[in-house]
Amino acid sequence: MEYSHRSRLLLVCSVLVLCLVTQGARCDELTSDFYDWSCPGVYDVVQQQVFAAMREEPRMGASLLRLHFHDCFVNGCDGSILLDGADGEKFALPNQNSVRGYEVIDAIKADLENMCPGVVSCADIVALAAGYGVLFSGGPYYDVLLGRRDGLKANLSGADNGLPSPFEPISSIVQKFTDVGLDTKDVVVLSGAHTIGRARCVLFSDRLTSTKSSADPTLDATMAANLQKLCTGGDGNQTAALDVSSADVFDKQYYHNLLSKKGLLTSDQGLFSADEDVVASTTKALVQTYSDDGEQFFSDFGASMVKMGSIPLPAGSAGEIRCNCRVPNKK
Questions:
Q1: Are 83 and 328 in contact (CB under 8 A)?
Q2: 310/145 Cα distance (integer angstroms)
Q3: Is residue 148 classed exposed, middle or buried when 0-12, 13-18 and 19+ CB atoms within 10 A define those classes?
Q4: Beta strand 198-200 pairing with 239-241
Q5: What distances in angstroms separate CA 24 from CA 11, 117, 318, one per listed residue?
Q6: How far apart are CA 49 and CA 98, in angstroms?
Q7: Cβ neighbours of residue 259 under 8 Å, at least 6 residues apart?
Q8: Which of 300, 283, 297 is nearest to 173 (CA)?
Q9: Which of 82, 139, 157, 329 is the most buried (most CB within 10 A)?
Q10: 324 secondary structure, DSSP code
């Protein structure tokens, strides 16, 4: 059955009114079928745009996944990372020259505004794009829950201070995950996203020396020498694969790499090689589990992505459905 734009908008309005007048209704809950009536073509549009972007550049799958992660860790998954402006999250130190994929989100939004204007949030587009980025890289399918609203402003300081850093000890990273409702298992599982993508030399050059030996004893010496050749004489923006074995394939190889000291970032290798304590013993056991059992990794990854995608917005954040993902709607 076909629905006109007007019919879809009337349906959305009816749902909102029902939420307001029905006692006990929970309209802020995310569901997998949120757009089944109001914009059923959303999945096809996102799939097509993500597939096209990854056909041109396979790395884009990892970039869209990272975009979602960096959005959710600041004020919840509200699309605030997409906002332009000098005080935007995209200009925070962890995001500069790092987070990518904005143009893909813009293209998806433009198509959806033509199909069902004012219905699909930018935050939901980011979440769906990340899911298809994983799937088209060979990773698991998981139900992306939908129904988010877009934040009205960015949080630059929150991005600078709240995002996990590759230079931090595992205990500090675990604390940042705990602060948003995630746990140690989620740290290990979501770090497995580094089975795809690349990182700049500036993020790991502190582990290197000019000799064949590594300044970091937890980094394989041959890998250190190769990375040194890559990074020497550059401006720090040269990139290396996060997974030296299968850079663009979403698999369990990331965890195998950690067993042989081939984790690129300090925060990656620390999951297996950090000094023993309660946290380290937990992360080490999980690394071993996922290196042995790819199906378990895929299952747990999907569960952790749904959990991360449900990080709540700050209290009182009503949000909106942006017409343009880069700017709030004009009042």
A1: yes
A2: 8
A3: buried
A4: antiparallel
A5: 21, 29, 18
A6: 21
A7: 272, 287, 288, 291
A8: 283
A9: 82
A10: B
Tokens of 156: 């630059």
Cα 80 from Cα 99, distance rounded (Å)? 13
CA-based max dimension of the chain? 70
Rounded distance between C-alpha atoms, residue 67 and residue 84, angstroms: 15
Is there a catalytic annotation at residue 256?
A: no
Torsion 124-126-127-133 (CA) sign: positive
Can you list the alpha helix ranges (DSSP code H) found in 260-309? 266-273, 278-292, 294-308
- What is the rounded distance in angstroms from the CA atom of residue 183 to the CA atom of residue 190? 11
> Which pair of structure tokens corresponds to residue 230?
């890559």
Does residue 265 contact residue 203 with C-beta atoms inside 8 Å? yes
Q: How many Å apart are CA 238 and CA 121, to the nearest integer?
A: 34
State how far the Cα of 257 lies from the Cα of 213, in Å rounded to an integer.
18
- State the number of CA atoms in the 13 A half-sphere of 73 facing the CB: 31
304: tokens are 């952790």
pLDDT by residue, tens only, the chain of 331 residues: 344 444 444 444 444 433 333 223 334 689 999 999 999 999 999 999 999 999 999 999 999 999 999 999 999 999 999 999 888 999 999 998 889 999 999 999 999 999 999 999 999 999 999 999 999 999 999 999 999 999 999 999 999 999 999 999 999 999 999 999 999 999 999 999 999 999 999 999 999 975 555 689 999 999 999 999 999 988 999 999 999 999 999 999 999 999 999 999 999 999 999 876 767 789 999 999 999 999 999 999 999 999 999 998 887 778 999 999 999 999 7
| Residue 133 structure tokens | 């980025």
Annotated catalytic residue: which of 5, 68, 70, 256? Answer: 70
What is the predicted pLDDT for the residue at 215?
81
d(CA 128, CA 106): 14
